[in-house]
Design a protein that fits this description.
This protein is an all-alpha fold. It contains 18 helices and no strands.
Length: about 350
């Protein structure tokens, strides 16, 4: 999706990604005995989700006023967690109310994917192109119309003119720094210039910071709990794992909504990151120690101390979920990259901007 973001724009990237996802969801839903078709469907749904997840934070950051950019970008995570909650409870309903030997037990969850994807497809005609992308392509008049729509102000309003001038100035600076006076920069020249800028003292630490953020995000254990929650809840002695998985999803979603609505633009990114990282680390250490020492097993007699420790482990998972949504998604993804790494008000990513220099002028 990287080339599509710059060559075709944010809006067209959404259309492509949503189309790919819908095709994949259909492949996952309709098979009778074609396992390969399900594998293909999972591949396409993954590609579609990846594309939408890539473009959405960028698009939100590019249309958001700087004062509330953190909050609006964070809503992407809030809706992501809300979708996860729905998935958890669909699973709960199927496990407790349907015959899992029938194909409808897996067709229903697969088919439900088509609902949000279909709603997105219905709303695409109302989706405006990113004004930043339009300015990068030299379509200033179209960008003014989009800014006017989003800000609900006339095109000649001072606030909109300031936005446009700021973005154009930043684009011009990047072009001058990367390609100089060349009107038709080659791809190799653009990559070489971008690499040179990235190796400078002021940029090395920024790239390293982003890399470390995403590395520790991937290693934080949240994905493991999301995907392997039944196994994890079973390992700490819980029997109705679908119920507790659903509760865990609710806590993450509520925590995300609370943080992004009231706290992210009030307390910033740094201290929520530090505090929640410590909380998440404590929860994970508790779980590891409890499983190693208590060795809880479902269906087997457990001592009073093991049962009490299991209740504490359940609480640690729930606390971890609430703390995690105020840690990595808020500070370790698009919010920090657009606000903190590249500077306040600057709503596009350096590598993507660099690619845009090549694609626009070639």
């Amino acid at each position: 999706m990287y080339p599509a973001l710059e060559l075709l724009g944010r809006r067209m990237t959404v259309i492509i990604a949503d189309t790919i996802f819908i095709i994949g969801a259909i492949f996952c839903t309709v098979p009778t005995h074609q396992l390969g078709l399900i594998y293909a469907g999972r591949f396409f749904t993954g590609m579609g989700v990846g594309g939408i997840a890539a473009v959405s934070p960028i698009y939100i950051a590019e249309i958001s006023p700087p004062a509330i950019r953190g909050r609006l970008t964070g809503f992407f995570e809030s809706f992501y967690q809300t979708g996860a909650v729905i998935g958890f409870w669909i699973n709960y309903g199927i496990v407790h109310n349907m015959d899992r030997t029938k194909s409808t037990a897996w067709r229903i969850p697969m088919a439900v994917q088509l609902i949000p994807a279909g709603l997105l497809a219905i709303m695409i005609p109302f989706l405006k192109e990113s004004p930043v992308w339009l300015l990068k392509r030299g379509r200033d008049a179209d960008a003014l119309k989009v800014y006017s729509f989003f800000r609900n102000l006339p095109e000649d309003h001072e606030y909109i003119q300031q936005d446009v001038q700021f973005v154009k100035t930043e684009i011009a600076k990047e072009r001058a720094h990367l390609v100089g006076d060349e009107k038709h920069a080659t791809f190799g020249r653009m990559i070489k210039s971008a690499a040179k800028e990235g190796s400078t003292k002021g940029m090395r630490n920024r790239f390293l910071l982003v890399f470390l953020m995403f590395m520790w995000q991937a290693w934080s254990g949240a994905a493991a709990i999301n995907y392997y929650s039944p196994t994890i809840f079973t390992s700490i002695g819980l029997s109705d794992v679908t119920l507790w998985t659903g509760v865990y999803g609710i806590i993450k979603a509520v925590g995300s909504i609370i943080f992004f609505t009231w706290f992210i633009d009030k307390f910033g990114r740094k201290w929520p990151w530090i505090v929640s990282s410590l909380i998440c680390a404590f929860c994970q250490y508790y779980l590891a120690i409890y499983i190693a020492l208590g060795k809880p097993t479902v269906g087997q007699p457990m001592s009073d101390s093991t049962v009490a420790g299991g209740k504490g482990a359940t609480a640690m998972i729930m606390i971890f979920g609430a703390a995690w949504v105020s840690e990595f998604p808020a500070s370790g993804s698009g919010v920090v990259q657009s606000d903190q790494i590249l500077g306040p008000g600057r709503s596009y990513y350096l590598p993507i901007q660099a690619f845009g220099l090549f694609s626009e002028n070639s």
